[in-house]
Design goal:
This protein has about 290 residues and is mostly helical. It has nine helices and three strands, in the order ααββααβααααα. The chain has a three-stranded antiparallel sheet. The longest helix is centred in the middle third of the chain and has 38 residues, at about 130-170. The protein starts with a helix and ends with a helix.
């Protein structure tokens, strides 16, 4: 139940940020005030995110690594993925103007961090909680998933940026989400860096995530035998994990070799991430929610 508190904090932060953005737009006729307010806003956002990360991280650790064993399920996996994604965003935010990503990230983090309060998961191993090696494998896996989660959000926003540019060129009406996020007729996507910068950051993060995913996939072979007493079985979870690993690797190779980029690259990122989600989150969701088996 500890994870319900980060979800409330994420939601409140999102509400405060939306209200602040509306106030900034109301004062847009004074450019100096906007500049000063934007700097203060950025510092306050970083401070609030740091508090949220500490709260959410502490709750995740206490709910997953228990004295009885390692408790995990699809809800815990999504919550950890959101935490890592927010953490990486917090680091990136010092170097890039990525505030346009924040509303979507906070919304997803609020939803994902609430799920473990409803779906408690199950003890998947009594040995794992006492194994430093498995803890390292577990942490690496979650960092990989969180990094690729952030990459997927960047890909989705790149698609929205591209559509926004096309709609402006074609004089199409704006969508309701722009009005909600900024309270005005200019898109909140304007807070993001140019598409070229977003694409470079996306592929850099994807390279890091792919390396971590590689370590996760192959280290899982070792821990499957030592902790669970069986070699890796080619079930649907393993199959989807390997397929997603191949898809991300192929995407990086295509970007390096033939220059795959733009909307087509971002679509393949989202497809690869969806397959990766099916590997563990999807299988645990079926067991816990649909089949009612822990």
């Amino acid at each position: 139940m500890l994870l319900i508190y980060p979800s409330i904090a994420y939601a409140l932060t999102l509400i405060v940020m939306v209200i602040h953005n509306r106030q900034m737009h109301a004062a847009q006729d004074i450019q100096r005030e906007i500049t000063l307010s934007s700097k203060k806003h950025k510092l306050w956002i970083h401070f609030l995110l740091f508090i949220l990360l500490v709260l959410h991280g502490s709750a995740c650790y206490q709910d997953i690594f228990t004295p009885q064993g390692l408790v995990f399920g699809f809800a815990q996996a999504l919550s950890m993925m959101a935490w890592v994604g927010i953490a990486i965003y917090w680091i990136e935010g010092w170097f890039f103007t990525l505030q346009g990503m924040l509303p979507l990230m906070l919304l997803l983090a609020a939803a994902f961090s609430f799920l473990p309060a409803v779906f408690s998961g199950a003890i998947i191993s009594t040995k794992a909680v006492h194994s430093p090696g498995f803890k390292l494998h577990f942490i690496t896996a979650n960092i990989a998933y969180g990094t690729l989660f952030l990459v997927a959000i960047q890909a989705a926003l790149m698609n929205l940026q591209d559509r926004s540019l096309r709609s402006k060129q074609q004089n199409q009406p704006i969508s309701w989400i722009n009005v909600f996020a900024r309270g005005q007729k200019s898109t909140w996507l304007n807070q993001l860096p140019p598409l070229v910068t977003m694409e470079r950051v996306m592929f850099n993060m994807m390279g890091i995530g792919f390396c971590l995913l590689t370590i996760t996939v192959f280290s899982g072979l070792f821990f499957s035998q030592t902790l669970f007493g069986r070699v890796l079985i080619l079930d649907h979870k393993t199959l989807f994990a390997v397929i997603s690993w191949v898809m991300f690797g192929s995407l990086l190779f295509a970007h390096w070799k033939v220059g795959l980029r733009g909307a087509e690259a971002s679509k393949w990122v989202l497809r690869s991430f969806l397959v990766m989600l099916l590997a563990y989150v999807g299988s645990r969701f079926v067991l816990e929610v649909i089949l009612q088996r822990l």
